[in-house]
Amino acid sequence: MPQQVRGVVARAKGAPVTLETIVVPDPGPGEAVVKVEACGVCHTDLHYREGGINDDFPFLLGHEAAGRVESIGEGVTGLQPGDFVVLNWRAVCGDCRACRRGRPWYCFDTFNATQPMTLEDGTKLSPALGIGAFADKTLVHAGQCTKVDPKADPAAAGLIGCGVMAGFGAAVNTAPVGKGDTVAVIGCGGVGSAAIAGALYAGARQVIAVDVDPRKLEWARGFGATDTVDAKKEDVVARLRELTGGFGPDVVIEAVGRPDTYRQAFDARDLAGTVVLVGVPNPTMTLELPLIEVFGRGGQLKSSWYGDCLPSRDFPLLVDLWQSGRLDLDAFVSERIGLGDVEEAFHKMERGEVLRSVVVL
Ligand SMILES: [Zn+2]
Ligand SMILES: [Zn+2]
Predict the structure, then answer these.
(1) Does residue 226 fall inside a structural domain?
(2) What's 280's domain CATH number?
(3) N or C terminus of the chain with fewer C-beta within 10 Å?
(4) Tell me: the pLDDT tens digits for 230-269?
């Protein structure tokens, strides 16, 4: 029987989100219904509400979630009702040209549930990143459920499903940061802070945090940044060179997603250095670079999709690192809120007051 539950819906571009009754169907073949226990408020949810992703309103927001599998559809293996899972938004298909070449983290044909969740009147909802977890329950593809240690706190574990994985993976998988590298991270929200943690885990000898907000720089120090640059007061490129013996960092991770900060990353890195773009730009942004510099400075300009992660490989690893005290996931959880508080959480995020507000159910 389809179930009626509460869900946070963005009905129109820029309009405040509302708490609505939504209809979650029984899981069909390959699908699972998950009882959501916690879901973090991510910039991407706000992006959807602002119409910055696409125009497929109404959206069911929320995608950084952990919960328990309630029921599974036909043909689902490796997943049982009661399993504690972190939801992922790139369930790899195993069959596309990327997967077949042994690069499943690039999968070009990731899975989502095929049945729609709807409003009471039958209007189809577009779940954010194919998840839609600001809801008591959500319908996903079974491959979007990654089992992790059930002892983990759902509020912290859910964050692995998006921002933490994206940032950590940008450093560890995409760059990848090597032992003894110097690293700068531009933009120290949830993704940037996780990139700092990832760079340290990978063996960086120096990790420089760059942000316009002194509060975020303070948090970055808490995650282990060795130096900070206040981008409002200092020339970012000159300061990054100065802090790295005049050369620039080996790796610069851009966690903002803007042409001006990308240009800082491009200009600041050392010769043959690496730039990783993990911040998500909007569709109107363009970039102009001197081609002679692209050639002459060498190195690598990379983009990081979801931290180039494999959820089945990386989520349990991050939970282990957290439980052994090597990754402070709890520090990402700024506050615990209810389903009705998401709109206010967007405002707190815009004002830079929180790293993550987490809806706890
Ligand atoms: Zn694939
Ligand atoms: Zn996210």
Answers:
(1) yes
(2) 3.40.50.720
(3) N
(4) 999 999 999 999 999 999 999 999 999 999 999 999 999 9
